[in-house]
Amino acid sequence: xxxxxxxxxxxxxxxxxxxxxxxxxxxxxxxxxxxxxxxxxxxxxxxxxxxxxxxxxxxxxxxxxxxxxxxxxxxxxxxxxxxxxxxxxxxxxxxxxxxxxxxxxxxxxxxxxxxxxxxxxxxxxxxxxxxxxxxxxxxxxxxxxxxxxxxxxxxxxxxxxxxxxxxxxxxxxxxxxxxxxxxxxxxxxxxxxxxxxxxxxxxxxxxxxxxxxxxxxxxxxxxxxxxxxxxxxxxxxxxxxxxxxxxxxxxxxxxxxxxxxxxxxxxxxxxxxxxxxxxxxxxxxxxxxxxxxxxxxxxxxxxxxxxxxxxxxxxxxxxxxxxxxxxxxxxxxxxxxxxxxxxxxxxxxxxx
Length: 352
Description:
This protein is of the alpha/beta class. It has one domain: Alpha/Beta hydrolase fold, catalytic domain (Rossmann fold), CATH 3.40.50.1820. Helix content is 27%, strand content 21%. The protein contains nine helices and twelve strands. The chain has helices at residues 3-23, 76-83, 85-92, 137-142, 147-161, 176-187, 240-251, 320-323, 332-340; strands at 34-42, 45-53, 63-69, 95-99, 164-174, 194-198, 216-222, 258-261, 268-269, 279-280, 284-290, 299-305. Strands 1-2-4-3-5-6-7-12-11-8 form a ten-stranded mixed β-sheet, sandwiched between helices. The protein has a two-stranded antiparallel ribbon with strand order 9-10. The protein is globular and about 45 Å long. It starts with a helix and ends in a 12-residue tail after the last helix.
């Protein structure tokens, strides 16, 4: 990267670090409302995560569980800043968990970093294991990490410690976290009721088997994404169209979609953190819904026309010239939740 990229990246790292100090505050008791930090031993490693308990939590009433997975190079702290899912959880009454991936240095060693601030220049691997081919020592180590098992253990932990409706467990993620959410819908098909993938479709390494259960799938994809383009990444992902086709087939949805556009508002995209002028938000949101699926499942694709490798209504974490535009035309976190919350795993009963 050039000197310009290094400068703006350095500015963002400082901003992200400062904001994260205020974003993640552990409450005194794990059962009390608010943001908490957690650690669990799994697979020989201390696995960490953040989670938010809404103020409406009542141990006598079950509530949904959402898992929100960060993208490559990010962390639970970064995912909180990006999505603000804790705000949606407070408003809607569900527990949201932000897991951390392992951190692997270029030599293939798993270690605990001093900072979780996003650094686009860092060579460490912060990714979820989706069984991609190992081209480096770090990726070879990643193949030994059981992230699917870690996720299942997290669900078990929260189902034990809280009154969780296990028929309403959802997985969402950004970029590589989106790849992993797709992966979990296959590998934990009996436990994940729906997924919300932003800028991250299905990986080639995820088995494309005929699943026993329908899984609601909500995609939010920028058609100008320079990092994970809609056509897919050769050797890594399917295209968005092929991924949607898989979920349509799996869920046995209606072949034709219902197409609408979300109302467009007059807005600007701020780049003030980088000393750059704001740009006009000329993005548009196209909603394509395939309904009437097995167990009432559905597949919904939000195409952010003019959008980049970003989380709509999230921060413009790098300049528009590098990652594209962050649409202000929808709050992706709220939209994904509203589309997923009605879906359940048929046959599973939530606790009273």
